[in-house]
Design brief:
46% helix; KR_dom; NAD(P)-bd_dom_sf
């Protein structure tokens, strides 16, 4: 897949949540190949992935093991990234969990867990970055990952879809509030991207065909399909875009 070059990403300090697996791993590689200084947080050990990226791209990412739902852990990782690579000027909030659930079986503990990882962590990562940028007088770009699942009104994971609707609302409000500081905030809403997790858990032949029937473009999405749109939103090529939600889904949902 051909990837455009964005000169302003060369040397940029980038922080990605959940950047060691799935879509996040593809994003980490994409930014590394732009010459960016990439740090990412994740719960699982990613040492082997870091070594592979260093070998494949000639650019070693900084892995910071931690939990995005714990503010102390998240902030410590972001501070370490800034100390190592310079102030974070590109934030990609990617970490999420679309665990299926029956609404009538949900209890408060599950609600808190789902909201913490799928919405709370987004707010506080943005807050921590924006504070640092304002203190330094620097502009910045934020890309918040949402999902078309809430636009489709999908059943089977109501808290996840609610959180993703919340992400787009959060994105619009932050864009309005911090635009005067030169901080852009956009959301990217992927369709059904066939990561290893999706293939293992939910991608039955019947489900895959039903979803493909909804798409205008008759190819399943892979993590690589999400990289170029993210690089665009994180670069100066989209410098007058903010507060927007961009769907990358093969043509399932439409806007306008």
């Amino acid at each position: 897949m051909t990837t455009a070059r964005y000169p302003d990403l060369d040397g940029a300090s980038v922080f990605i949540t959940g950047g060691g697996s799935g879509i996040g791993a593809a994003l980490t590689e994409g930014f590394l190949r732009q010459g960016a200084r990439v740090a990412f947080i994740g719960r699982s050990d990613a040492a082997a992935f870091v070594d592979r990226m260093a070998q494949d791209t000639g650019n070693r990412p900084l892995f910071l093991q931690g939990d995005v739902t714990d503010n102390a852990s998240l902030f410590a990782a972001m501070d370490k990234a800034a100390q190592t690579h310079g102030p974070i000027t590109r934030l990609v909030n990617n970490a999420a969990n679309d665990q299926r659930h029956d609404t009538l079986d949900v209890d408060e503990a599950f609600w808190r867990w789902a909201i913490d990882i799928n919405l709370k962590a987004y707010l506080f990562a943005c807050q921590h970055m924006i504070r640092a940028l304002r203190d330094a007088g620097l502009p910045g770009h934020i890309v918040n990952f949402s999902s078309i699942s809430y636009m489709m009104g999908n059943a089977g994971y109501a808290i996840y879809t609610a959180a993703n609707a919340g992400i787009t609302g959060l994105t619009r409000s932050l864009a309005r509030e911090f635009g005067p500081d030169g901080i852009r905030v956009n959301a990217l809403a992927p369709g059904w991207v066939l990561t290893e997790k999706q293939l293992d858990k939910w991608a039955s032949p019947e489900a895959l065909q039903a979803h493909l029937d909804r798409q205008c473009l008759k190819e399943h999405l892979t993590p690589a399909d999400i990289v170029n749109p993210t690089l665009f939103l994180a670069s100066d090529a989209s410098r007058m875009m903010t507060g927007q939600t961009m769907a990358v889904d093969g043509g399932v949902v439409v806007s306008g």
